[in-house]
Amino acid sequence: MTAPYSWTGFYLGGHVGGARVEDRATAVGDNAFIVSSTIDSIKSNSFTIGGQVGFSYQVGISVVGVEADGSWTNTTASAALQSLAPGVTVNTTSIISWYGTATARVGVAWDNVLLYAKAGGAGTNARYTTDIQEAGVNKRQGISDRRIGWTAGGGVEVGFHGGWSGKVEYAYLDFGTSQYWLAAPALDPVRHVHMVKAGINWRFGGPDIANYSPQGRVADWGHTAAYFYDPNRFELRGGLQSDFLGLETGTIGLAGELIFPRLFTIEWLPDFFTPRFQLGGVANLAGRTSFVHADLLWTANWTERLFSEMFFGVTVHNGNLLSVDEVHNALGCRALFHVGVNLGYRLDQNWRVMATYDHSSAGQAVTGCPANESLNQAGLKFGYQF
What we know:
The protein is mainly β. The protein has one helix at residues 364-367, and strands at residues 9-26, 39-59, 62-81, 88-110, 113-134, 137-159, 164-177, 180-181, 186-187, 190-204, 235-243, 252-259, 276-284, 291-301, 306-317, 335-346, 351-361, 375-385.
């Protein structure tokens, strides 16, 4: 028998995710070309990748700690300010390169499941460039905008065998205002960021949890997968997925799936050859392309806990068929081929966590659809078998 899971110790890890940024710029100076107090909002979405390091200490079910993280991004957006003079155009472009936070974490643990909130300081760096074009002459000036602000959020983290854990979290970052002068009048942009991240940590320097397994049972990798995997039961899954290619890069979707018991059984064949049926969908939280899908799902059990899956089916979406704007992928046909893979870990007989890659494409060479930019998403999902 093993002791209950402990969250005490140092940890380090990595994460991927997406960020939605809103810069709301106000012109605060008097100028013949710019309406005073004009407000222009620049909204953009981007993919993020980075790492984190921290320390946690557990007392009973309470867990407290500190964490620092950094995320690389390449968020680019532009907008035009209003001009009073005829023949004058004013455009401002912002490029955000990184975010960083230093926070305190407070949580409640149920064995190897931790629900936590976090708050602290945040930093970011952006480059603003303004172009004013008048009578065929272009004036350009740029400035770096490095800011300190605050952040608050929360998430859920699940501990695995060997000190590993996976997490999903949301954070709100507020960087206030920072007045600066460009070729235009003084601008006073307010920046707000909504960020969703999925990550993995490795914990060390605390109690020995290398042989921990849920329900106080030492992991026995010689057992068959049947203890954790029952293909004759339903399974409900949910999580977050982020687009990482095309015009919808960085947008976040809420994913859900219902897995049905396997369609048939052939005793002498491995589980992989007896597929299950899944119905699911992804609702894009930024108002971009959402879709529903139906697939066959094949599962390969590498150990009683570690597994991989592949799926193939059809997607029906509500996005654009042709390229008509700068925020939606041109997908060609309303119904698309749907393929993907999952890599997962079973926490116990009911719960599992998995990383997923999801691809929807028109298969232009086969279907003859007029466009084929496709949807590509990666994310993290939790499943419960019942």
